[in-house]
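Reply to dn_fold:

You asked what the input looked like. This is it:
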Amino acid sequence: MALAQRDRIRDEKINGVVFDLSPSPRYEHSLVNGNLFAIIKAGLKDSICRVFMENIDYVYNPDADDYLEPDIIICCDKNLIRGNSYYGTPKFVAEIISPSTAKRDRTVKKDIYEKAGVDEYWIVSPVERAVEIYYLNNGRYELVESYVTEDDEKSEHYNLKTEITLRRFPITMTLEEIFAI
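and this is what came back:
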């Protein structure tokens, strides 16, 4: 598919199959995505790395022109950005799941990121207000943290103030900041 065509629609091409990402997800998806983007962008202000939000394709198989459109992606080699596509290995990817993408984000896309060598992968659910954090260890993803928010301050499981730090970047955020709506 030509770049000009990809500019007009939101889609992904996984193993030769094109998946339409329309219609736009619920507003909570966009708010959580924006929260993560803003926090990471501020944390990368003095870095050579850049964060993108839903506006750059990650070409994981250039021979077949297979690409994903991550919700959040950190790219550290600007020479590997061509047009609206990144051809390197991202350092971090977050997918904000919705009912229509949850299965693909948790299986196929997770496997693609793992095989490509993406160091850290987050699956964030705005509906459940949950975060799963995977680190690449010895070529395989390991679930290292899993949070479901509890905002009742009287509960022994209250965790909105829990801090999460990206593995390779000095960027820290709370569950409360991620899920602020």
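The longest helix spans residues 27-43.
Hope that clears it up.
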